[in-house]
Amino acid sequence: MDRAEIGELVHRFFRALDERRFTPGWTAGLLTDDARMETPLGYSRGAAAVRATEEALGRYDRTQHLASGIIADVDTTATASWNALMVHVRGDAPFMVGGRFEAGLRRTAGGWRFDRMAVRAIWTQGEPPAAVTAGPTAPRVG
């Protein structure tokens, strides 16, 4: 049951990113208030992590995040990892990233919530917008 809930949380998080449901408190059912986020663009925590996510995705016209191979290890807290294909489109130019997410989770009164999340790019294809080129780069394909 816990593993299924964690898998659903992964998919809900990705769906929220792609549907741009960035209303106040949009992460309440997904992240703890003190969640730590690490991406190729940097590290942030809490409300700053939420703002950084919104800002990064706002550079694109459309996105699609796909998760597969979710592995969850559950005890009083949990860890999860999954493969991800992240497609970002600005104009007619797609920028794709293949990578892996690693996350920590805590059980709250409302269910499992991410308390830390890191995304590691394994490969990229296409060119990101100029404002998105900070951080270490992954090998380019094609």
UniProtKB/TrEMBL annotation:
Domain SnoaL-like per the UniProt entry, residue ranges: 2-117
Domain of life: Bacteria
Gene3D superfamilies: 3.10.450.50
InterPro entries found in the cross-reference section: NTF2-like_dom_sf, SnoaL-like
Transmembrane segments: none
Stated name of the protein: Nuclear transport factor 2 family protein
